[in-house]
Specification:
alpha/beta; two-stranded antiparallel sheet; 46% helix
Length: 304
């Protein structure tokens, strides 16, 4: 028994005529007859009562037809799903992302996929710190990892990874327009004397800051407020007299809907990004499309 025989069974049941069913299925009358006879032999059930003028389904056919149609529908869905997977339009993608790229690159990448109009895959985005993300990547819980920050930590298992470094962008200080420092037009060096909020990054994530600035941060306990993600830090900076830092692209996006002041750090601060995946594990078409969207989003940041 195969799907072709099930299709022939359904067509003959629906049309009630060997001639019409054979024409619909692109068969000769005799070929359709042999197919139905073979199906009856395989099932051990007579499916049709035949006369010289008509074909009538038996009680067995009536009983089996709902299952036959469900089987054909499942086959169509299987074919459709396989086609979507092949085209990168369906499936399931698990992305791990550090706090900064979660805000800077994930939203514009997803926006690109949605605007394409043919994206039906399920995407799971896990935000965590580098060590936790790398463990999950090596355990194959994640398809790929998007890292980023003001400095890259040593990456474990580099020999087993494909690492694609992306475009970088500057970081800026965010504050309310009515913050005392903004109203006083104070230099950014004075910002060290106020409350700061930052996501929970690595302890040495500020290793690339100049010594004087890093030491001043340590002396004052900056950031005094450690939050789980950058969005919470930005929200706090918008609602209270608290400072935070953010990638320039994120700051500009916030500025489209909120009143926010952007100030430069007293020295260059750059957010760098990279996509990592396990070498021996190929990406699904859907995961590859997401990776391409992330790369395109990073290039757009650099162009701006």
């Amino acid at each position: 028994m195969d799907l072709r025989q099930i299709r022939h069974f359904e067509a003959l049941y629906r049309l009630g005529s060997f001639r019409l069913a054979a024409e619909e299925q692109g068969l000769t009358h005799s070929a359709l007859t042999r197919s139905i006879q073979k199906l009856e032999e395989d099932l051990g059930v007579r499916l049709f009562d035949r006369t010289t003028r008509a074909v009538h389904p038996t009680a067995g056919a009536e009983r089996l037809m709902p299952r036959a149609r469900a089987l054909l529908q499942d086959a169509r869905e299987l074919t459709r799903e396989a086609g979507l997977l092949k085209g990168g339009e369906a499936g399931r993608v698990s992305l791990g992302a550090a706090p900064l790229p979660t805000e800077a690159l994930v939203p514009p990448a997803l926006e690109r996929l949605v605007k394409a109009g043919d994206w039906h895959a399920e995407i799971s985005v896990v935000t965590d710190h580098q060590d936790a993300l790398m463990r999950r990547l090596m355990d194959r819980e994640l398809d790929m990892v998007l890292l980023g920050g003001v400095s890259f930590q040593p990456i474990a298992h580099q020999d087993a990874l494909t690492i694609q470094f992306l475009s970088s962008e500057p970081a800026v200080i965010l504050a309310r327009p009515d913050h005392p420092l903004v109203l006083a037009d104070a230099p950014s060096e004075d910002y060290l004397d106020h409350l700061w909020a930052a996501p929970r990054l690595f302890a040495d994530d500020y290793a690339r800051f100049p010594d004087f600035f890093r030491q001043a941060m340590e002396e004052r306990g900056i950031p005094q407020l450690r939050l789980e993600n950058l969005s919470a830090c930005i929200r706090l900076a918008l609602d209270a007299q608290v400072l935070t830092g953010a990638p320039l692209s994120v700051a500009r996006r916030i500025g489209e809907t909120e009143r926010v002041h952007m100030a430069a750090f007293p020295f260059p601060v750059t957010c760098s990004y990279a996509v990592l995946r396990v070498k021996e594990r190929s990406l699904s078409p859907a995961a590859e499309r997401l990776r391409e969207a992330i790369v395109a989003a990073a290039r757009a940041l650099a162009a701006d």
